[in-house]
Structure formats: C-alpha cells, structure tokens
Amino acid sequence: MQKLFLQDENLGSFVSTLIKNYPVIGPVAKKTRFVFSNLKSSDDLRLDYDTTILPPKKVFFPTKQNLLEFDGNSIKGCINPKNNILFGVHPYDIKAISMLDKLFSENHRDNNYLANREATIIIGSNVQNHYKHAFFGTQCKDMELKGHDMFLTKIIGGYAVETLTEKGNKLIQSGKFEQLDEEKIREAEEVNRKADENCPEKINFSSEEIKEKIRASFDSDIWDELSKKCFSCSSCNTVCPTCYCFDVQDQWAIDQKSGVRYRRWDGCLSIDFSEVSVQGGTENFRETRASRFRHRVMRKTAYLNDKLGFPACVGCGRCSGACTINIANPVKIIERIMEV
Amino acid sequence: MSDHNSKENIFMPRQAEVINSKWLTPTEKHFLLKMKDGKSFEFIPGQIVETGLPGWGEIPLGLSSSPTQKETFELVIRKVGKVSTALVGLDKGDTMFIRGPLGNGFPVEEFIEKDVLVIAGGIGLVPTRSMINYILDMRKSFKNFTIFFGCRDNDCRLFIDDLETWHTDDNVNCFETMDNPSDGWNKNTGVITTLFSKTEIDKETYVIICGPPIMYKFVIGELRKIGIPDEHVFVDLERRMKCGVGKCGHCQINDKYVCIDGPVFRYSEIDGLEEAI
Q1: pTM of the model
Q2: How many domains does chain A have?
Q3: Which CATH number covers residue B29?
C-alpha cells in the first residue's frame, strides 16, 4: 500500500473529483456542531471538526432502514446498496465501525448492514481539534486501526496520505498526490500520537481492571446513585458509535395493502426497551432506571468486551455531551465505580 | 465482511398455510401449519419461530408440536398485543409468515436414558408440549416420564384433550393442579409446587421448566430440596425477542441473548443472573 503527500491546495480538487464520481459523505458544520452529511461541494468538508452529533454508522445502519417491502402477501427484501465514500472518519469512529462489522457479521449475517458497509469506501482523517469530552487516547489503545481504505493526517503544508486497500489505491488517480518523505511520515506519526495524548479526558484504569470491577459491582447500590437523575431518554445510546440495538416495526402505506417492515435505532435506556405484552398489561424485564443504566455500562465494559476483546466504547465522548443532566460520561461513571 | 453482492436477508419470512385452527381457551388459539414451499419444517423441541403478518409485525413463539410430526407444525397464539390480535384472526387457508426455527432448543440427547420431569405453568405448556410429544413418540429412549401442569383457572387450561390423554397414558405420570378451580374440579388445587408431594421424583431426574416468571424460583427451590443439581434443570425463558437473530438487543439478559443463546438455558448457567428469572 502507498504513502503519499497531498498539498493543502490540492485537497479541494481531490474531493471535487470524488464528488463527481460518488456520493461523498463527510463532516460539515451545522450551527455550532458538525454532522456527517452529503457533500455538495469540497468547500463544505470540515476536516477540522471536533466530533459529529451522530456517529458515521448511520451511513450503513440508517436511523430508519427498510428491511422488507410488502404488497398483500408478496414480500421482497430491501438490500440495495449504493456505492459511496465516507470521508473524514476519525480513528475512534473507525474502531467503532470495525466493532459493528464484527457484530453484524457474527452468528446470523445481517446483509442489511453488511451490503451498505461493503459499498462504502472509508477515508479516515486525524483528529485536528478535540471534542471537549473526548477520551479516545486512553480507550481501545491497542486495537488495530483497520477497515478503512485511506487515511489522511494533517501535517504542515498538507496531508500525509496512507492507502490501506486496493479501493484506497484506486482513489489516488482522483488527486494530485506527491511522494511522502521520511520526515513527513514521522511528522504524521507525531501528530497522531499527540492527538491521543491531548485528549481532554482520560481513563486511568485498564479495560481488564474496569471489566472486573464493574462485574463485581453488579449488585451494588452505586447504580441507583449514578442513575438517580436519568430521564431514560436514550440520548447516550443514540449518539453512541457502537450502540446497534434496533426496534422492528411495520408501516402500512395509504392503500392499507402494501407497506414496509423497517428497523429504527433503539436504546436500552428507554423504559419500554425490555417490555413485553402479557395478559392484562405488560411485563418489563428491566423496570428500574438503575437496571437500565447498569445494562448500558455492563454492555460497553464487560459483555461486548468479552466478545470483541475491547470495550465497546471508543472514547468519542459524544454521550457525555448528549446527556441532558450530565450523568452519562463514561469517564466519570468508571471513576466513581472504581472508588467504591 | 459479507460475500459480495449477497442479498440474503435474515428478516425474510417464509409462508406457511393454516391447515386448521381452534380456540383452546378464550384467549389462546391453536394453529396447525404447513410450509407453502412443500418442504418439511425441521426443528428441535424448545426452538422458536418469529411469526407475523406483513403490516402488523412479528412475535416470537415457541413451537408446540413434536418434530417427529414431519409434514406439519403447530403454534399457539395468545391474544395480548397488536400482532397477536391480528394473527388470531387467521383461519384455515390463510397465510402466516414464519422465520425460523431460531434459538437453541432443549438438548434432547442429554435426556436420553434419563428420568424426565416437565413442569409447565399456564401457557408454558405450549413450548414444552413439543418436548412432551417428542418423548412420547420416542418413549423407549427415556426412563420415567412425569408431567406437572398448573394453571390459574379453568379459562387458562389449554390442550385439554392432550392433558386427558396423558392422564390415562401409562407412558407418562401426569399431575395437574389449578390455583382457583371452578366447581367440579377433581384434581389438585393449589400452586404448582403442591404437586411435589404427590409423587416421588428421583434426584437423577432431568427437568424442564416453563411458566410465568414468578413460578421459577419456587419450583427450583423444590428441585434443590430433592437434590437435583442445577446442571440438570433447563428453563425456557421468554423475552422481547424482536429480531430473533442476536442483533437487536431487546431480549438480552446480562450477556446472554435469549434468541440465540436460549430460549432454553441450563439453570446452573443463569443462576445469579439477576435479570434472568
């Protein structure tokens, strides 16, 4: 694979060429924040973004995704991937995508996700500005960064570019790339190292220590304390790059004959997440705020850690910022549990 | 990653034709079904199917017939929510949409050459009936076979014809109780644990339990008194299984997905999981 240099002044024409050939989704400004959105022009691309409101998983796992279309008793699937480019994905989000790739592939393979994922070329980029709650520098540190096709690191005068796949190599012809000398390679490594080091928040325990302590705290009263103010709004789930729970619903078209079966993002913090209909009402298997709050933390630090080999939290800090009453910050939750 | 251009969709149901239907109780309807593609529907007792109708949705149901019955299979639907209400409206000749079989089912081979006790409470008889009929069809492979069935009142007593057959069948010791019987009830009255005093259960017995959440801990207490190890006790759990394929998260109990790791769990594996029972 290749290591190249792209001058600042040549980024625009590279992105413009890509936009001509593919839908390109990248970080763009939205009021005071950033979102992943279709780029209309290369000028919209904001590689200096701190983080986006929603994670880029929405490109393969849309907030609402049709699974089946029906007309009377005739049903057909809706897997119909469109080739596109996801541009400017930060390393922590690349790691989260790798986790989702694994989770949607294991056991029963979910091509509703995987087909979209395969049709997407991912161009990563380094973190130039930190989100105020980011702690990715101390999270999943040893996890290999993979699954993307190209990576751009901002260095003086331009970008150090690395291609990781054939798909990534093919993109080279869309821009004016130059040779990358050893000095620039070292500069890029230093930039990425500093991005990790300069995270505003840090977790100072190993994921193994955390997993053990949290499992041991299952029956602790700490969950009541931590979740006391929880609105059960699921904002922490919604903005999380590794949350992948969903609900499946049917919707009739106006003819009352045809319609769709779709899935939409769901979150384990919401009250009805584990509720079932029973005779005479409902039964909720995680009825208390504390049990729902605990489930999220357990899942991230322990249950999925066992499956993935890493905690299902990449340290983006989105949940910390999304929580209305400021109780979702994993750094603070873990610190509190570790001191009990 | 996926195979290139793979469009196989884990959410795609298959069509089954309703061959017959019958109300078992005022709220539970029994369906005899046959796959429309002509293929036999193979499964293990204890497995589930996602059953649905386009436009209404899907619900998880335990298969109620024995897999030894090759051409057809049976489901029982309790009318409680939106989807189940739509499904109980179906009758002979109508089409039901099925995904599955899903989940693990009972480890049937472990029960071979063993005493077996099936404890079913109310609608818990629906999935356990699959195992009961399987054992009766393969009777020589098992030793003593006992059934405990309990229900709240006469309206909840389902599979009455089967129960009456089992009461008179020498191949099985069937004991029945009712919490609040009407006049004329000539069997035991009381909760299901009262049946333990009616017969001798050997401590080498393998046990299957399915019933309302409240039932489990009392029944397991009785089994422990007899000295039956938790490793020989299998519980069939119900949760909000939505996708049925271990993705959507709704049925997760701690680190287990009921739809793929269950719905049958060895009790020793879930004892202490606060959210399990």
Answers
A1: 0.93
A2: 2
A3: 2.40.30.10
Residue of A nearest to B244 (CA): A108
CB–CB contact B8 A109 (8 Å)? yes
For residues A257 and A154, state if they share a domain.
Answer: no
Nearest CA distance, A229 vs chain B (angstrom): 22
Q: Does B274 sit within 8 Å of A107, measured CB to CB?
A: no
Domain enclosing residue B181, as ranges: 108-236
Which chain A residue shows the shortest CA-CA distance from B97?
Answer: A73
Of the three residues A197, A221, A243, the one that is the final residue of a domain is: A197
**Shared-domain flag, residues B184 and B82:** no
Asked whether residue B147 falls in the same domain as residue B50, the answer is no
> Is residue A122 situated within a structural domain?
yes
With contacts defined as CB-CB under 8 Å, which chain A residues touch B13?
75
Tell me the pLDDT tens digit for each residue of B59-71.
999 999 999 998 9
Q: Which residue of A has its CA nearest to B11?
A: A67
Q: Which of A75, A76, A294 to mutate to test the interface with B (most CBs of B within 10 A)?
A: A75
Domain that holds residue A240: 207-339
Residue B245 lies in a domain: no
Residues 6+ apart with CB under 8 A from A123: A85, A86, A87, A88, A89, A148, A149, A150, A151, A152, A168, A171
B254 Rama class: left (phi>0) / alpha (psi -120 to 50) / beta: left
Model pLDDT for residues B186-238, shown as the tens digit of each residue = 999 999 999 999 999 999 999 999 998 889 989 999 999 999 999 999 999 87
Taking an 8 Å cut-off on Cβ atoms, the answer to whether B13 and A75 are in contact is yes
Select the residue from B247, B251, B253, B260 to test the A interface by mutation, using most A Cβ atoms within 10 A. B247
**Could you give the ipTM of this predicted complex?**
0.91
Same domain for B115 and B230, yes or no, is yes
